């Protein structure tokens, strides 16, 4: 991780790198410092900007839960994902699920 | 493989036999797509090369019941798991071309398999599919699991929002599959509908995401029933299986169990196969008159087939167990453990399953590289996979380590393990080099969806084992047979008279046949061996051995060992049997073939094998590319002769240098 950090611009005070989040940390994805192909794959896997994620295992790999799916990320990838800690009022863009307060992690609303 | 819908329909109406229409199975990885494929098509899948691609896809045949009675034969294509049709990844390109009908007519319909427990993400692929001009149906898989989690679905609303039928199924139990089959004919004959929810006014991905969220919010209800305790257990399992130390220990234990199972359980069917071919050879020899045709059938055809088929149990068992491991969800975690080690040498974590498989046989290992998404990563893995010590090397290792440490099983075991280690080091070093020269670039960092832990499906594992076994037979059963014929001919011709010593033994055996039958049988057997040895020496391969011997003399080999090494280029396991034929020393009572080779002498009376020669041979066999089946498979998988030829010359060159250094180094150290 230190190597990855050396190569990258440091995270701004408001943002955190996903690799720095502790286990149980909840955050929203802000942006990805990744090549287009990698970013596209992550987005297709559900890691879209503004999505809510929970860190299940930190380190290498970093395992996050997004929309009921667990995704393992090599530390070098996690270090390039910038996230807003949950509770922050500055999501990069509105989350499509914002305003739907009763949603569970699969995206379902109690009926 | 298929024809356009109108042609097929008209052919059906006119009663003419038509090429079956095609149904595509599309979905994210780990959605149970292959389970549904097996459910629809049984175990009758074959692989086919899709037009315009270099990827083999599984194709099965289905009798699709028609509402008016009867059934229509359709081909079902199991597309690789993918996250999006739009990505520039091999699996996305293959699926995109298949959906668009590139290189052929468009499919009759697409079955999009979606995970009911994780709909919001899976619907994004459904949304992409909805933009294509192809009729489709959504198979809402794992519906039983979703219900257990307390989710409920308004299928009518969902179907209306998507613009296609939504059928809840459980591919594993078969629930709902009949309903899916019932709606398919109508789906196939439905005119293509327009674009549903997603519009083109917003950025595509955001548009799809919002659309998927809306569909879920309108049609899915219920609270998630999985509590925190389950998540805690999952977290602990994930943390343990991917831990730098605990994960590695568990990985080695699992792999040790895997290999133990393969070598233990495969030995019985392997013995049966060998015995069957041996008996068949005996019957042919007894029934057919002596001559070239009998020799060709027994020595060439049966020898070639048995030498190949004997490895089938190991290969089937390996894939059965790997599929079981994969199905439990463990392999995805293990991939991350190995990723830390492999990425230092330019290989991805995905490479560990192929490299693991190569310890049984390089061929299934190379086939398993199809799992690796990046082309450079995949080719690098293919190039180094044959360095892993396969089971065909075992007879050679046994022969030579027993010679080196006859009464020291501990040292023999260490030498055996050192052979495996040397192969792995050579593989990593070669990967390091190739990723900095021919296949530049770093391996793709691991990003992998971790499937939920679950009980494995024996049905899926059995189907995969059968399929891979058949693929192995098909690959090696064509070209390798022809090569076996050639090798047999080179070692069997030109025919020569039996040597005087053999003739004398035969005459003596005839004289005492009645008075001392057991001694007569021994003498006759010895005569036959001498004749074979003489024949081998005078054969084209024997002559070739003498011509090529100077090339191998610096490694400590005489013409016999050279012939053994040369014939082993067809298949490594031939080495011991070739030496057994070439070594013509008188046989002592109770002496086995290994002892006879150990005690054999060269033409000048010096020992055939010395410690230095044995180490040199071990190094050569660890590193050399001596398997024509593998060469053929690499050509088939890479679609070019460049790669197998590069692999052959690199590995064999490295083997020669390694054996030379070992032999000359030991001699300089006073060990001859």
Task: Give structural attributes.
heterodimer; A: 111 residues; alpha+beta; SH3 type barrels; six-stranded antiparallel beta sheet; B: alpha/beta; Rossmann fold; disordered N terminus
What does this structure look like?
The complex is a heterodimer of chains A (111) and B (672). Chain A has helices at residues 2-7, 36-44, 75-78; strands at 16-17, 26-32, 52-57, 62-66, 69-73, 81-85. Chain A is of the alpha+beta class. The longest helix of chain A is centred in the middle third of the chain and has 9 residues, at 36-44. Chain B has 672 residues and is α/β, with parallel strands linked by helices. Chain B has 30 helices and ten strands. A seven-stranded mixed beta sheet of chain B has the order 2-3-4-1-5-6-8, with helices on both faces. In chain B, strands 7-9 form a two-stranded antiparallel ribbon. The termini of chain B are far apart. Classes of the chains: A alpha+beta (111), B alpha/beta (672).
């Amino acid at each position: 991780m230190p190597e990855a950090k050396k190569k990258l611009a440091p995270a701004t005070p408001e943002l955190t790198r996903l690799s720095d989040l502790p286990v149980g940390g909840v955050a929203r994805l802000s942006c990805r410092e990744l090549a287009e192909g990698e970013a596209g794959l992550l987005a297709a896997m559900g890691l879209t900007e503004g999505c809510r994620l929970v860190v299940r295992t930190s380190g290498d790999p970093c395992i996050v839960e997004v929309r009921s799916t667990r995704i393992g990320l090599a530390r070098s990838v996690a270090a390039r994902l910038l996230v807003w800690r949950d509770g922050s009022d500055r999501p990069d863009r509105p989350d499509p699920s914002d305003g739907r307060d009763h949603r569970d992690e699969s995206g379902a609303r109690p009926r | 493989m298929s024809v356009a819908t109108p042609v097929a329909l008209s052919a059906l109406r006119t009663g003419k036999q038509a090429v079956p229409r095609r149904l595509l199975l599309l979905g994210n990885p780990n959605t149970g797509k292959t389970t549904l494929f097996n459910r629809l098509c049984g175990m009758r899948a074959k692989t086919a090369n899709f037009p315009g691609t270099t990827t083999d896809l599984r194709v099965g045949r289905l009798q699709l019941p028609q509402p008016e009675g009867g059934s229509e034969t359709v081909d079902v294509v199991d597309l690789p798991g993918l996250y999006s049709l739009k990505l520039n990844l091999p699996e996305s390109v293959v699926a995109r071309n298949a959906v668009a009908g590139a290189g052929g007519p468009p499919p009759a319909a697409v079955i999009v398999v979606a995970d009911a427990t994780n709909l919001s993400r899976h619907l994004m692929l459904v949304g992409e599919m909805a933009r294509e001009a192809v009729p489709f149906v959504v198979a809402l898989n794992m519906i039983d699991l979703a219900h257990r989690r307390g989710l409920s679905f308004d299928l009518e609303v969902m179907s209306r929002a998507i613009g296609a039928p939504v059928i809840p199924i459980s591919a594993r139990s078969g629930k709902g599959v009949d309903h899916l089959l019932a709606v398919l004919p109508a789906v196939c004959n439905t005119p293509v509908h327009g674009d549903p929810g997603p519009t083109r006014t917003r950025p595509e991905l955001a548009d799809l995401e919002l659309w998927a969220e809306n569909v879920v919010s309108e049609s899915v209800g219920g609270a998630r029933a999985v509590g925190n305790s389950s998540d805690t257990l999952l977290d602990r399992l994930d943390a343990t299986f991917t831990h730098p130390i605990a994960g590695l220990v568990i990985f080695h234990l699992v792999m040790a169990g895997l290999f133990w199972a393969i070598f233990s359980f495969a030995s019985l069917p392997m013995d049966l196969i060998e015995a069957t071919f041996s008996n068949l050879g005996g019957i042919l020899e007894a029934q057919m008159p002596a001559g070239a045709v009998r020799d060709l059938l027994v020595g060439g055809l049966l020898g070639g087939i048995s030498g190949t088929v004997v490895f089938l149990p190991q290969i089937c068992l390996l894939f059965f167990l790997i599929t079981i491991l994969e199905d439990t969800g463990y392999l995805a975690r293990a991939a991350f453990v190995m990723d830390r080690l492999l990425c230092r040498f330019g290989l991805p974590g995905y490479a560990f399953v192929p490299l693991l498989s190569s310890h049984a046989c390089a061929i299934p290992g190379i086939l398993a590289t199809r799992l690796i998404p990046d082309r450079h990563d995949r080719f690098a893995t293919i190039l180094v996979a044959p360095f892993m010590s396969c089971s065909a090397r075992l007879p050679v290792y046994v022969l030579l380590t027993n010679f080196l440490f006859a009464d020291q099983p501990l040292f023999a075991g260490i030498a055996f393990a050192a052979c495996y280690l040397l192969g792995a080091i050579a593989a990593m070093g070669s990967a390091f080099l190739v990723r900095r020269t021919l296949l530049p670039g770093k391996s793709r960092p691991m990003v992998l969806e971790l499937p939920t832990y679950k009980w494995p499906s024996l049905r899926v594992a059995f189907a995969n084992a059968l399929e891979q076994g058949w693929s192995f037979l098909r690959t090696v059963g064509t070209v390798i047979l022809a090569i076996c014929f050639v090798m047999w001919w080179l070692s069997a011709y030109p025919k020569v008279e039996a040597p005087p010593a053999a003739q004398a033994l035969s005459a003596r055996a005839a004289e005492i046949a009645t008075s001392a039958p057991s001694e007569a049988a021994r003498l006759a057997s010895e005569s036959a061996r001498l004749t074979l040895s003489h024949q081998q020496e005078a054969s084209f391969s024997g002559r070739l051995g003498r011509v090529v011997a100077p090339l191998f003399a610096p490694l400590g080999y005489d013409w016999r060992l050279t012939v053994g090494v040369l014939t082993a280029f067809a298949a490594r396991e031939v080495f011991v049997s070739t030496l057994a034929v070439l070594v013509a020393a008188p046989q002592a009572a109770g002496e086995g073939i290994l002892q006879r080779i150990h005690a054999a002498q060269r033409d000048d009376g010096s020992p055939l094998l010395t410690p230095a020669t044995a180490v040199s041979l071990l190094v050569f066999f660890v590193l050399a590319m001596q398997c024509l089946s593998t060469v053929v498979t690499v050509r088939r998988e890479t679609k070019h002769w460049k790669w197998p030829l590069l692999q052959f010359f690199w590995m064999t060159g490295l083997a020669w240098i390694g054996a030379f250094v070992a032999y000359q180094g030991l001699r300089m150290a006073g060990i001859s």
